[in-house]
Design goal:
This protein is α+β, with helices and mostly antiparallel strands and about 250 residues long. The chain contains 3 helices and 15 strands. Strands 1, 3, 4, 6, 9, 12, 13 and 15 form an 8-stranded antiparallel beta sheet that branches. The structure holds magnesium ion (MG).
Length: about 250
């Protein structure tokens, strides 16, 4: 009975799913034979593992980097992180220096949220609550209050700093949480020769700022990007002297 029910159902699906072109190509073949032909291109070898979403939509296979304490972080000068976490929110400790993850990462999906202070009196341009995330400690995606705040394009929020401006400015108002979703492909090296550049895709509040953007080289404040041979490396957060906050940061290694 199962087969008798299934075959008419499959026939409906088949006729609905295939284009007129394909129907014309295969319609002279009896249905049962067509179903067998269709099975030939099914692949059952890989069954995707199930990923469920937990609190704050954190995927079950993600590495959480701000889950209650700073144990995933250290000072780039060595020793424990000088930045603290309070109720899941990590805030820059101005003047105490950058922090980085203890873990190293290569290709990854990265998510986090960030927020800048609302008191912006007398602050403008690059001075208005600047921070940044350096992927593999070398490639900065800018974090900055770019809401009604003019600065050079390749320095505003979401810029691949000093290399590529974001396609658009997708800022929520100052003081609101902003989200970054990043897909990163690390550069490949053969000795000191870079055989493939790195690539980054960035969505800011769900809006695409970079789509598989080639990364020319390291982020430099002065001068052109450099090629710097490296392997998997930490994520670094920048202390630019401003109390920028971060939360809900997680990585899925790809
Ligand atoms: Mg910065």
């Amino acid at each position: 009975m199962g087969a008798r029910v299934l075959i008419p159902f499959a026939a409906v699906l088949l006729s609905a799913a295939v284009s007129a072109h394909h129907e014309a190509t295969f319609e002279h073949i009896p249905l049962e034979e067509r179903l067998k032909m269709a099975e030939e291109t099914e692949s059952w070898a890989y069954q995707p593992p199930v990923v469920s979403l937990g609190k704050n939509d954190v995927p079950s296979d993600a590495i959480q980097l701000m889950a209650g304490d700073m144990s995933e972080w250290e000072s780039t000068k060595g020793g424990v992180s000088p930045w603290a976490i309070k109720r899941g929110v990590v805030t820059v400790a101005p003047g105490k220096g950058d922090i980085r993850t203890k873990r190293s990462f290569c290709d990854m999906q990265l998510h986090f949220e960030w927020k800048t202070p609302t008191d912006v009196k007398g602050m403008q341009g690059q001075q208005r609550n600047n921070s940044g995330i350096f992927i593999q400690e070398r490639y900065e995606l800018q974090v900055l209050d770019s809401y009604n705040n003019e600065t050079y394009g390749n320095g505003q929020a979401g810029a691949l700093y000093k290399q590529v401006p974001p396609r658009v400015n997708a800022m929520r108002p100052t003081g609101e949480w902003q989200s970054y979703d990043i897909l990163y492909t690390a550069p490949r090296f053969n000795g000191s020769e870079r055989v493939s550049p790195g690539y980054v895709t960035l969505m800011h509040n769900g809006v695409v700022l970079h789509n598989h953007q080639e990364i020319a080289g390291t982020t430099e404040w002065i001068g052109p990007p450099q090629i710097d041979q490296h392997g998997c490396a930490p994520l670094k957060l920048q202390d630019h002297g401003n109390k920028v906050s971060f939360r809900n940061m997680w990585v899925r290694e790809l």
